[in-house]
Amino acid sequence: MDNLPQLEIILCAPRGFCAGVDRAIQIVEIALEKYGAPVYVRHEIVHNKYVVDSLKAKGAIFVEELDEIPDTESPVVFSAHGVPKSVPADAKSRNMFFLDATCPLVSKVHVEAQHLQKRGFEIILIGHKGHPEVVGTMGQLPEGAISLVETVEDAESFIPKNPDSLSFVTQTTLSIDDTAEIVAVLQRRFPSVTAPHKEDICYATTNRQEAVKKVAPEVDAMIVVGSPNSSNSMRLVEVAERSGCKRSALVPRAKEIDWGEFGNLESLGITAGASAPETLVDEIIDAFAQRYDISVSSRVTAREDIAFNLPRELRVETK
Q: Which one, of 45, 105, 30, 108, lies nearest residue 307 by Cα?
């Protein structure tokens, strides 16, 4: 192990699990403890294969739609990304016992969109087509009440029914900078457009992107631990590149490190998307320790102490 090249690793903090992801995973784990296996989960509880596989091993069964679930008294959990209104309605019609693991910050956007619609606003949702959070938010309102805008080009070409009663909400896991550009176009074209009372992009997305912006210019390369279908993880890769890091890559597991890309470094930044567990970060650090003489430090740009309540059915009752 002598004569290994030296590598400085800077860990971005905050990184990894946010309060919404932590709560969603706990909901499945506590439901398994309380009610026994199986517990059915509609869609991946969070976008991370390691987490999903770990829960499968404990007795969770993942489905994409409720019609894949047999008639059962077992609990059915809705994922952290939120679901269209039709899903709980369908579950009720089948007398399913369901637990909603939707992140409270996503639920806030749902409520916001419903209030805006009741007040007569036409609503734009800034987000990524097909992402389950977007499907869930659009599914809170009647068909045609909400229009999706994905890019600056979409914002430039969007034609509202009534420019004077226009509002927007956003997906919670977007790039802060990209979203700001889209919002700027909407505000230039429609000066009276109504913005959310409070930023929809969640605190965890914001904090993880800000941490990457600080570390990225100082390192030769940046690894974002996360899954390819995780929106917030993919945004971190983009933020690192834009912030001046020449090599930035999404790495789901240590075995997927491209050593052609990461085999000749003096400094490395590591972060993790909001659905990636810290154990995967440790695994990647260990992989680098096999090839380098590493020193590890943390760059802390924010402290997070947010926690969300579990559903009433799962709370421990205290006398």
A: 105
Q: How would you write 245-292 as a 3-class SS string?
A: CCEEEEECCHHHCCHHHHCCCCEEEEEECCCCCHHHHHHHHHHHHCCC
List CB contacts of 29: < 8 A, sequence separation 6 or more: 55, 58
Please report, in angstroms and rounded to a whole number, the separation of the first and last CA atoms in the chain: 57
For residue 304, give Cα distances in angstroms to 29, 200, 204, 258: 23, 17, 8, 32
Q: Give the burial class of 35: count Cβ atoms within 10 A of its Cβ; 0-12 exposed, 13-18 middle, 19 or more buried.
A: middle
Distance CA 86, CA 138 (A): 11
Helices (H), 123-175: 132-138, 152-157
**283 classed as catalytic:** no
- Closest Cα partner for 158 from 189, 127, 197? 189
Catalytic choice (33, 44, 133, 210)? 133
- Domains and their CATH numbers in the chain: 6-17+203-300 (3.40.1010.20), 19-103 (3.40.50.11270), 105-189 (3.40.1010.20)
Residue 316: DSSP 8-state = P
| Cα separation values, 83 from 97, 132, 133, 261, Å | 16, 7, 7, 39
Reading the block at residue 205, the tokens are 């997305």
pTM of the model: 0.94
Q: Which two tokens stand for residue 266?
A: 């003096």
**Which residue in 4, 44, 11 sits closest to 280, CA to CA?**
11
Nearest to 148 by CA among 165, 131, 163: 131
pLDDT digits (tens, 9 = 90+) for 294-319: 999 999 999 999 999 999 999 875 44
* H-only helix segments in 94-202: 104-118, 132-138, 152-157, 176-189
Q: What is the mean pLDDT of the chain?
A: 95
